[in-house]
Automatic annotation (TrEMBL):
Name of the protein this chain belongs to: Heme ABC exporter ATP-binding protein CcmA
InterPro entries linked to this entry: AAA+_ATPase, ABC_transporter-like_ATP-bd, ABC_transporter-like_CS, ABC_transptr_haem_export_CcmA, P-loop_NTPase
One matching Pfam family: ABC_tran
Record GO terms (molecular function): ATP binding; ATP hydrolysis activity; transmembrane transporter activity
Domain of life: Bacteria
Example GO biological process: cytochrome complex assembly
PANTHER family associated with the record: ABC TRANSPORTER I FAMILY MEMBER 1
Protein's UniProt keywords contain Translocase: yes
DNA-binding found in the keyword field: no
UniProt KW keywords: ATP-binding, Cytochrome c-type biogenesis, Membrane, Nucleotide-binding, Translocase, Transport
Domain ABC transporter: 3-211
Length: 215
């Protein structure tokens, strides 16, 4: 499996936010985007997820079965700043909706709703409306959405915002487990996620990017 981005450029409104961004990730790889506020991290994630059209360049993934040059969004989970859950529905109803709506892609199976909630440390609250949960609990349930349907690519925008230290560690373990299963992770963050073997790409706005290794 391979996710590749070549010479991407993106515009928001009138402004070119970045250009000439390229990377290639294979199964098990993680790329962490860092950089100041407004440097274009969320914009790049949204382009890769297929939620925003790029100005230039291409992004594509090739599946295990040789299914090549497909839009990366087809194979991705996207966890944005917002949690994509309905406040008035219960946790179980929200996650069941996503499990049915997304379904599993070839190559893996999502967890059941109860198992996924347990995996994010919140067993026993699936009957509560999502809107009753604390900000950190809501973020944990949003993360459980990644577990209920199989997608090889996880695109994560500030996944640990509003989380306590134990949740930070839990998310790092879940992301690492995804990598060990051959998954790809692309994440934007202002704080180290504690991932093993993650590459870093520092977004510097229109001036370009520099690459290094995180941790
Ligand atoms: N809809 C829009 N129209 C015009 N400009 C936008 C729009 N959305 C974002 N921008 C601008 O695009 C630039 C990049 O924003 P982006 O959200 O990608 O940055 P970021 O690196 O993720 O920032 P942060 O660290 O604050 O989350 C910013 O200058 C922002 O003001």
């Amino acid at each position: 499996m391979h996710l590749s981005a070549e010479n991407l450029a993106a515009r928001r409104g009138e402004d070119l936010i970045f250009s000439n961004v390229s990377f290639g990730l294979g199964g098990g790889d993680a790329l962490v985007l860092t950089g100041r506020n407004g440097s274009g991290k969320s914009t790049l994630l949204r382009v890769v997820a297929g939620l925003l059209r790029q100005e230039k360049g291409r992004v594509a993934w090739t599946g295990k079965d040789g299914d090549s040059d497909r839009p990366a969004g087809e194979a991705s989970h996207y966890l944005g700043h917002r949690n994509a859950m309905k406040s008035e529905l219960t946790v179980a109803e929200n996650l069941s909706f996503w499990k049915t709506f997304l379904g599993d892609m070839a190559g893996g199976f999502g967890l059941g709703v109860d198992e996924a909630v347990e995996a994010v440390g919140l067993a026993g609250i699936t009957h509560l409306p999502f809107g009753y949960l604390s900000a950190g609990q809501q973020r944990r349930i949003a993360f459980a959405k990644l577990l209920v349907a199989h997608r090889p690519i996880w695109i994560l925008d500030e996944p640990t915002a509003a989380l306590d230290t134990s949740a930070d560690q839990l998310f790092a373990q879940l992301i690492t487990a995804h990598q060990k299963n051959g998954g790809i992770v692309l994440a934007a963050t202002h704080q180290p996620l504690g991932l093993e073997k993650a590459q870093e790409m520092r977004m510097t706005g229109f001036a370009g990017v520099s690459e290094g290794v995180w941790g």
